[in-house]
Amino acid sequence: MATSTKKVYQVAVVLYNGADVLDFAGPVEMLTHIYYNRDPQSLEHAFNIRIIAETPTVRAGNALTVTADMTLQEASKQLDGFDIMVVPGGPPNILMGLVEKDSPEVQWIRNFATHASTDSGKEERVALSVCTGALLLAGTGAVGGLTLTTHHMSYDLLRQVCKKAVNGAEAAQVVESNPQRRYVDGGINQAGVRVITAGGITCGLDASLYLAQLKVGDGPAEWAAKLTEHEWKKATE
Fold first, then answer.
1. CA-to-CA distance for 232 and 209, rounded, in angstroms?
2. For a Cys-Cys bond, which of 33, 154, 198, 213 suits 221, CB 3.0-4.6 Å?
3. Mind listing the pLDDT tens digit for each residue in 173-229?
4. How far apart are CA 58 and CA 130, in angstroms?
5. pTM of the prediction?
6. Distance from CA of residue 157 to its chain's centroid?
7. Around Cβ 166, how many Cβ atoms within 10 Å?
8. What letters, b where the CB count within 10 A reaches 16 and e where it falls short, cover 112-143?
Protein backbone atom coordinates (compact mmCIF):
# COMPACT_ATOMS: atom_id res chain seq x y z
CA MET A 1 0.00 0.00 0.00
CA ALA A 2 1.36 3.41 -0.98
CA THR A 3 2.10 5.86 1.79
CA SER A 4 0.05 9.05 1.63
CA THR A 5 2.02 12.22 0.94
CA LYS A 6 -0.76 14.52 2.14
CA LYS A 7 0.21 16.80 5.01
CA VAL A 8 -0.82 15.78 8.52
CA TYR A 9 -1.15 18.92 10.65
CA GLN A 10 0.30 18.73 14.14
CA VAL A 11 -2.02 20.14 16.81
CA ALA A 12 -1.15 21.07 20.40
CA VAL A 13 -4.11 21.35 22.80
CA VAL A 14 -3.03 23.29 25.88
CA LEU A 15 -4.76 22.00 29.02
CA TYR A 16 -4.78 23.20 32.61
CA ASN A 17 -6.74 22.33 35.74
CA GLY A 18 -10.27 23.66 35.43
CA ALA A 19 -10.47 23.82 31.63
CA ASP A 20 -14.01 23.36 30.33
CA VAL A 21 -14.41 19.88 28.88
CA LEU A 22 -16.28 20.71 25.66
CA ASP A 23 -13.94 23.63 24.95
CA PHE A 24 -11.18 21.16 24.15
CA ALA A 25 -13.12 17.93 23.54
CA GLY A 26 -15.22 19.62 20.86
CA PRO A 27 -12.28 20.67 18.67
CA VAL A 28 -10.56 17.34 19.30
CA GLU A 29 -13.69 15.47 18.20
CA MET A 30 -14.12 17.55 15.06
CA LEU A 31 -10.49 17.51 13.98
CA THR A 32 -10.19 13.76 14.45
CA HIS A 33 -13.04 13.38 11.94
CA ILE A 34 -11.28 15.38 9.24
CA TYR A 35 -10.11 12.95 6.57
CA TYR A 36 -8.55 13.29 3.14
CA ASN A 37 -10.62 10.36 1.92
CA ARG A 38 -13.84 8.52 2.76
CA ASP A 39 -12.63 4.94 2.79
CA PRO A 40 -13.61 3.56 6.22
CA GLN A 41 -11.04 0.78 5.85
CA SER A 42 -8.12 3.18 5.30
CA LEU A 43 -8.92 6.67 6.54
CA GLU A 44 -6.31 9.36 5.97
CA HIS A 45 -6.38 11.71 8.95
CA ALA A 46 -5.53 15.34 8.32
CA PHE A 47 -4.76 16.27 11.94
CA ASN A 48 -2.62 14.64 14.62
CA ILE A 49 -3.56 15.88 18.09
CA ARG A 50 -1.41 16.05 21.21
CA ILE A 51 -2.64 17.09 24.65
CA ILE A 52 0.01 19.13 26.44
CA ALA A 53 -0.03 20.33 30.04
CA GLU A 54 2.24 21.48 32.85
CA THR A 55 1.60 18.23 34.75
CA PRO A 56 1.15 14.63 33.53
CA THR A 57 -2.57 14.76 34.35
CA VAL A 58 -5.09 17.58 34.63
CA ARG A 59 -8.58 17.78 36.08
CA ALA A 60 -10.90 19.33 33.51
CA GLY A 61 -14.20 20.85 34.49
CA ASN A 62 -13.91 19.34 37.96
CA ALA A 63 -15.20 16.15 36.36
CA LEU A 64 -12.69 14.58 33.98
CA THR A 65 -9.09 13.56 34.55
CA VAL A 66 -7.03 13.81 31.37
CA THR A 67 -3.59 12.31 30.78
CA ALA A 68 -1.32 14.60 28.79
CA ASP A 69 0.62 13.26 25.82
CA MET A 70 3.54 15.47 26.79
CA THR A 71 4.39 18.16 29.29
CA LEU A 72 4.77 21.81 28.34
CA GLN A 73 8.51 21.46 28.81
CA GLU A 74 8.65 18.50 26.43
CA ALA A 75 6.41 20.26 23.92
CA SER A 76 8.65 23.34 24.00
CA LYS A 77 11.45 21.26 22.50
CA GLN A 78 9.17 20.48 19.56
CA LEU A 79 7.63 23.94 19.19
CA ASP A 80 8.55 24.31 15.54
CA GLY A 81 6.81 21.02 14.79
CA PHE A 82 3.35 22.22 15.81
CA ASP A 83 1.17 23.79 13.14
CA ILE A 84 -1.88 24.55 15.28
CA MET A 85 -2.53 25.43 18.91
CA VAL A 86 -5.92 25.06 20.61
CA VAL A 87 -6.57 27.03 23.81
CA PRO A 88 -9.75 26.06 25.69
CA GLY A 89 -11.54 28.29 28.16
CA GLY A 90 -12.69 27.81 31.72
CA PRO A 91 -13.90 29.84 34.71
CA PRO A 92 -12.59 33.43 34.37
CA ASN A 93 -11.13 33.41 37.89
CA ILE A 94 -8.94 30.44 36.99
CA LEU A 95 -7.83 32.00 33.72
CA MET A 96 -7.09 35.38 35.24
CA GLY A 97 -4.97 33.64 37.86
CA LEU A 98 -2.92 32.07 35.08
CA VAL A 99 -2.59 35.37 33.22
CA GLU A 100 -1.66 37.44 36.27
CA LYS A 101 1.16 35.13 37.35
CA ASP A 102 2.32 34.54 33.77
CA SER A 103 1.94 30.81 34.31
CA PRO A 104 3.80 28.13 32.33
CA GLU A 105 0.64 27.69 30.25
CA VAL A 106 0.58 31.38 29.30
CA GLN A 107 4.29 31.29 28.55
CA TRP A 108 3.85 28.31 26.22
CA ILE A 109 0.95 29.98 24.45
CA ARG A 110 3.07 33.13 24.04
CA ASN A 111 5.99 31.12 22.70
CA PHE A 112 3.79 29.51 20.06
CA ALA A 113 2.06 32.77 19.14
CA THR A 114 5.34 34.67 18.75
CA HIS A 115 7.49 31.91 17.29
CA ALA A 116 8.52 32.53 13.70
CA SER A 117 9.01 29.25 11.88
CA THR A 118 12.50 28.41 10.72
CA ASP A 119 11.01 26.90 7.56
CA SER A 120 10.35 29.71 5.09
CA GLY A 121 8.13 27.47 3.00
CA LYS A 122 5.91 26.34 5.86
CA GLU A 123 2.22 27.22 5.89
CA GLU A 124 1.00 29.83 8.32
CA ARG A 125 0.39 28.45 11.79
CA VAL A 126 -2.94 28.87 13.57
CA ALA A 127 -3.91 29.67 17.15
CA LEU A 128 -7.50 28.78 18.00
CA SER A 129 -9.09 29.76 21.30
CA VAL A 130 -12.50 28.62 22.47
CA CYS A 131 -14.73 30.57 24.84
CA THR A 132 -12.73 32.32 27.58
CA GLY A 133 -9.53 30.77 26.24
CA ALA A 134 -9.21 34.12 24.46
CA LEU A 135 -8.19 35.60 27.83
CA LEU A 136 -5.05 33.46 27.79
CA LEU A 137 -4.28 34.41 24.20
CA ALA A 138 -4.80 38.09 24.94
CA GLY A 139 -2.72 37.85 28.10
CA THR A 140 0.34 36.93 26.04
CA GLY A 141 0.39 40.35 24.38
CA ALA A 142 0.77 38.60 21.02
CA VAL A 143 -2.59 39.55 19.49
CA GLY A 144 -2.46 43.35 19.53
CA GLY A 145 -4.30 44.97 16.63
CA LEU A 146 -6.28 41.82 15.78
CA THR A 147 -9.99 41.08 16.29
CA LEU A 148 -11.12 38.66 19.01
CA THR A 149 -14.28 37.28 20.57
CA THR A 150 -15.09 35.17 23.61
CA HIS A 151 -17.97 34.00 25.82
CA HIS A 152 -20.71 36.62 25.98
CA MET A 153 -20.21 37.14 29.71
CA SER A 154 -16.51 37.96 29.31
CA TYR A 155 -16.38 40.67 26.63
CA ASP A 156 -15.47 43.46 29.06
CA LEU A 157 -12.92 41.32 30.86
CA LEU A 158 -11.28 40.42 27.56
CA ARG A 159 -11.09 44.10 26.62
CA GLN A 160 -9.34 44.82 29.91
CA VAL A 161 -6.82 42.01 29.38
CA CYS A 162 -6.16 43.11 25.79
CA LYS A 163 -5.47 46.69 26.84
CA LYS A 164 -3.22 45.77 29.75
CA ALA A 165 -1.21 43.17 27.82
CA VAL A 166 -0.01 45.53 25.08
CA ASN A 167 1.16 48.25 27.51
CA GLY A 168 0.11 51.27 25.47
CA ALA A 169 0.39 49.69 22.02
CA GLU A 170 -2.64 48.99 19.84
CA ALA A 171 -4.95 46.60 21.68
CA ALA A 172 -7.00 43.89 20.03
CA GLN A 173 -10.58 44.75 19.13
CA VAL A 174 -13.22 42.66 20.90
CA VAL A 175 -16.41 41.94 18.97
CA GLU A 176 -19.50 40.16 20.20
CA SER A 177 -20.37 36.73 18.87
CA ASN A 178 -23.87 36.08 17.56
CA PRO A 179 -25.71 33.42 15.50
CA GLN A 180 -24.09 34.81 12.33
CA ARG A 181 -20.64 35.12 13.90
CA ARG A 182 -19.95 32.27 16.32
CA TYR A 183 -16.23 32.58 15.66
CA VAL A 184 -13.89 35.26 14.35
CA ASP A 185 -10.89 34.98 12.07
CA GLY A 186 -9.00 37.87 13.60
CA GLY A 187 -6.16 38.00 11.14
CA ILE A 188 -2.44 37.28 11.31
CA ASN A 189 -0.15 38.57 14.05
CA GLN A 190 3.38 39.88 13.66
CA ALA A 191 4.87 36.39 13.88
CA GLY A 192 2.71 35.13 11.02
CA VAL A 193 0.25 33.21 13.19
CA ARG A 194 -3.43 33.32 12.19
CA VAL A 195 -5.64 33.87 15.24
CA ILE A 196 -9.15 32.40 15.35
CA THR A 197 -11.32 32.91 18.43
CA ALA A 198 -14.66 31.25 19.15
CA GLY A 199 -17.55 32.39 21.30
CA GLY A 200 -18.84 30.30 24.18
CA ILE A 201 -18.26 26.55 24.38
CA THR A 202 -20.22 25.02 21.46
CA CYS A 203 -18.94 27.76 19.14
CA GLY A 204 -15.67 25.85 19.19
CA LEU A 205 -17.26 23.13 17.06
CA ASP A 206 -17.98 25.60 14.27
CA ALA A 207 -14.59 27.28 14.60
CA SER A 208 -12.86 23.90 14.33
CA LEU A 209 -14.68 23.14 11.09
CA TYR A 210 -13.64 26.55 9.78
CA LEU A 211 -10.03 25.75 10.71
CA ALA A 212 -10.31 22.44 8.86
CA GLN A 213 -11.78 24.25 5.87
CA LEU A 214 -8.78 26.60 5.79
CA LYS A 215 -6.27 23.78 5.88
CA VAL A 216 -7.82 20.96 3.86
CA GLY A 217 -10.81 22.44 2.03
CA ASP A 218 -14.60 22.48 2.06
CA GLY A 219 -15.15 18.80 1.33
CA PRO A 220 -13.48 17.26 4.40
CA ALA A 221 -14.98 19.92 6.69
CA GLU A 222 -18.50 19.40 5.36
CA TRP A 223 -18.05 15.64 5.62
CA ALA A 224 -16.97 15.90 9.26
CA ALA A 225 -20.05 17.97 10.05
CA LYS A 226 -22.20 15.29 8.44
CA LEU A 227 -20.42 12.45 10.26
CA THR A 228 -20.89 14.13 13.63
CA GLU A 229 -24.45 15.18 12.80
CA HIS A 230 -23.58 18.78 13.55
CA GLU A 231 -25.19 21.70 11.77
CA TRP A 232 -22.17 23.81 10.93
CA LYS A 233 -23.03 27.42 11.63
CA LYS A 234 -20.63 29.22 9.33
CA ALA A 235 -19.70 32.81 10.12
CA THR A 236 -21.44 35.15 7.69
CA GLU A 237 -20.28 38.45 9.18
1. 8
2. 213
3. 999 988 889 999 999 999 999 999 999 999 999 999 999 999 999 999 999 999 999
4. 18
5. 0.95
6. 19
7. 17
8. bbebebeeeeeeebbbbbbbbbbbbbbbbbbb
